[in-house]
Amino acid sequence: MECQSVTELKGQPDSPVIELCGLSEDCNPTTLFPPFFEEDVGVPHIVSLLSPLEGGGGVPAIFGVQNKYEPFYTGGKIQITNDGKDLFCGCGNKIQVLDIETGQCKQFIGQDEDEEVSCFCLTPDNQHLVLATKLLVLRQWKWKEKVLVRTWKAIHVAPISCMDFDVTSTLLATGSADSTIKVWDIDKQYCTHNLRGHQGVISIVKFHPNINKLQMFSAADDYKVRVWNLRTSACITAIEVHYSVVTDMCFTQDGNTMISGGRDSIIAVWDVPKLEVKKTIPVFENIESVVLLPEGKEFPDLSVSTDSPHVITAGSKGTLRVWDVNKSRCIYTKSEVLGRATDTETGEQNITQSFYSQSLQTLVVVTFDHNISLLDVNNLTLQKHFCGNTDQVLDIAFLGDNDSYLAVATNSEHLKVFEVATWSCQILHGHTDLIVGVTAHKNKKLLATCSKDNSVRIWQLDNGRVHCVAVGHGHTHTVGSVAFSCLSTKTLISGGQDCTIKVWEIPSKLSEEEITHLHSTITEKAHEKDINSITVAPNDKFIATGSQDKTAKLWNVKDLSLLGVMRGHKRGIWHVEFSPVDQCLATSSGDGTIKIWSLTDFTCVKTFEGHDSSVLKVSFLTRGMQLLSCGSDGLMKLWNIKNSTCASTMDEHEEKIWALAVNKKENMVATGGADSKVILWKDVTEEEEDKKREEMEQIILKEQELSNLLQQKKYLKAIGLAITLEQPFRVLNILKDILSQPDGASELEGTLQKLRMDQIDAILRFSGEWNTNSKHCHEAQFVLNSVLKSHTQEELMEFPNIKSTIEALLPYTERHFQRMNRLLQQAMFVEYTWQCMRTVTDKSQTQSNVNVTETSRFDISRMVEREVSKEQKSRDVEVIDMSEDDDDDDEDDNIDEDDNIDEDDNIDEDDNIDEDDKEDRMLDEDDDDRIFKEGDDDKDEAVIIPSPEPPKQKGRTNMADKKRGQKKKDKLSKKMKITDSKVKDVKRLKQLPASKHMKKKMKKQRG
């Protein structure tokens, strides 16, 4: 989410209320607040208040993680490798591997889906690690390669509580809460023994160091120590010497003596060959661990000689005791706790485990609060201390000359001081309740803490060790914040839930031997609710406080007189901070905003919005031109005051960030949060710019190389380079270029088959993007088809992104398939429509031909009728009228020659003509008068018969003429027979029903 721009509140009607206390209306506030940096301080006042806010500016910075502390141990037993380099600790569902030299977690063993690890064990040869989960699953790892060798289900019916390997790294014994012990052969991978006999949870199992004896010792909640013969799987003996749970066992080098310790405050010395107890030694504390010192070696500082075995016991009192086994007495006692204030009573710190590391020559001690200490075995002095789990980090401060230490207040009464280089930790005891706040003086030698025990303490750093030198009592409730004066070490200011401010005077000389008791010089009730933050101005003249009552107040240091109240936040104020160069104050609040206030008139100058929840800390950077903030949303934000923008947002914490500290040079930032993480941030602006510049140069070179490859048509290398550049659409264009060639499909298939497996995985991933667009889906489907044809299912399943690729391809592929089906159906419908149109056209053409034929027949009948009429008019008087027509020759019977019948006058389809009539209408081929020829389907052609010769006039006839006339009559009679037939046809046609248009036209002609 982008941060919103800063809101200018000055001059707006809803501006925060400004309240001046103890000042007249006509006073000038600027006379009360001189510049923070005066000439006598050595730093001149260079700019006015609003210059950096409106006219100045700072270069945007980018902070990257330089180092990180994370929880690595949450409980259980720990182990160290034989070479002393790595430390194995259980942390939730994983085993963290800690580099002892650097204090950093180098790797973890386990799987995310595993349940919490209940127990683990490292083989003596350091090759394998076996862990057991609460789901009764055993996993065998090659931890150096981080390879899971084997996973099998334990036969136990309850969680595994303890494990141990024999000296050959072959046999593994597991003890469970189901009262059984099982022995596993991890090489041959089967269970060799199932030992029953104990009652209750198995607390410890130990193989005898001499493998030839094949014996195993165990103990459980029945307080009995049992010895098992692994050859016969029988219990040799069960001795009840302890009266509580046995927690540890150790063997001498020859294996003839065993020493056991338990929570009954005794240690027992066993004669192993005789399987009996030689003696018991009271130790007066619950024992958790018994460590046998190396035999044959003297430890003068511990008063240890070589004439007797010596053991170190550790338990509930948190002390280490050295015992002479033969003399049954304690010869040396050492408290493991360091940094304890001399005014506090000796408190108990339960030690849960201790063991000896031969390679490191150290004694490893683990406490109940997940702290791991490495002690020099010669004198039991602390070498390194690791904090396995800090819980919530509430406050943090840089300490030391080069800011080489970090003081961390956690959800504990103990103060932790980390060495930044190695994360080695000092545990400082003094407070009796949770430490709420911590702050360091600018000289980086003094440290102040405040606690829920209503006290403040001052600690001093000397030669890498921190000691409590002063304590102040006087508050009636939790002290929430403390602050040193900036220019001297004379004053300490504190405030808390009792709503009061106290000014403490610090003596000039502080001693570790005798803790100084501080005295409050001034006490003032400051707010109506809890005081969350106190800060002192750079000139040591003013104090600013922030409270849950939503106000920030400015006070005079000398008499704690109130100078002004700044109101405007909608929720409680968590932190206040003075600008290092200007007369302004920054406040952060639970309303998610940061405000900058002018101290000349107490107005809100700017408001920064961007956090999603409460802003818990705020600090100035780059000489007051930038702000750094952190909040409950787990984000750290860098703000540019000049242009009122958020320069960058850093997200590394998983929960709210309570603590924020900046070193002297302002190039390193430390944060701590509720996720138990402490993160060191470094200004990496220049490095990031150089990195981006190099990346841009590389991209330009590769782009040029890609263009050259495309020009040279080296498509295989071009595709590989485009995949390297993560340019999916560049790859798409290359594929289109290949497919556009004459034999592109086969060439593209061959090119795809030559790609590496990682390149095929990438191009399949690209296909998922192409497939979302119908314009590019064909290329995507081509690639998918080619890959599926050329690779087996097993090969495809090895692709790291195959699952996400299939999920991306599947929905759009189905959508494209449905779309193609619809297109296919539409194409078939077009074909179907075309076929239907052709059928209709053929029928229409056939009907048209029938209509033309009927029209031709009607025209023929009219022509015949006209010819007959002409013949009758031209006959001679002597010619006998052979016509069978009635005598009254009506006009209706005559049709003029010029009467043209349009195509519209065709006989209707319903006018059926018999086949006999059709045959009668056909003229004989020998007829010379008329010949009718029926042409093609489109037209009919008629041939006109020539008219007969006119008859002779009356009175001129003779015999020859009579004969000639008779012949003509015979001939004419012959012709008339044909004509009569035609006339009958005409009459028959006239009897047929004519169309309305035809009747109308004939009536018009008669009229």
Automatic annotation (TrEMBL):
Q: Is Repeat tagged as a keyword?
A: yes
Gene3D superfamilies in UniProt: YVTN repeat-like/Quinoprotein amine dehydrogenase
Q: Which SMART domains match?
A: WD40
Where is it found, in Gene Ontology cellular component terms? 90S preribosome; small-subunit processome
Q: Which GO terms describe its molecular function?
A: U3 snoRNA binding
Q: Which CDD domains match?
A: WD40
Cleaved signal peptide residues: none
Q: Which PROSITE patterns match?
A: WD_REPEATS_1 (PS00678), WD_REPEATS_2 (PS50082), WD_REPEATS_REGION (PS50294)
The protein's name: U3 small nucleolar RNA-associated protein 13 C-terminal domain-containing protein
Q: Which organism is this entry from?
A: Pinctada imbricata (Atlantic pearl-oyster)
